[in-house]
Amino acid sequence: QVQLVESGGGLVQAGNSLRLSCTASGRPFSSFSLSWFRQTLGKEREFVAAIAWSGGNIYYGDVVKGRFTMSRDNAKNTVDLQMNDLKPEDTAVYYCAAAHPSPSYLRNYYDTGAYDFWGQGTRVTVSS
To answer: Which of 2, 15, 72, 75 is the least buried, fewest Cβ under 10 Å from its Cβ?
Structure first.
């Protein structure tokens, strides 16, 4: 098992930046693939960013590419999401997720079904 706790959400004006952090406890952090998703009321959870347990590329959703940066620190058991040039449409609850190592992960990283553990979410509100 692994427990995930997100932090860093809040209210910010459009054009500004915010940094989210997800801290993990339980099993060794480095063995998990990690991602960020977001969700607004009445909509499905949307893929934001992901990195496989093996490292390498970081994948981003089209709507955040070029503005958001994901990073992980295995020594600190944290994964961060730096969000720049925020827009009102970025308003959502942001979730951190972790997945056991899987050979199919790189085909499914954008799918919520690929993940085994979820945090409780942190709310981000971007005002215009």
So the answer is: 75
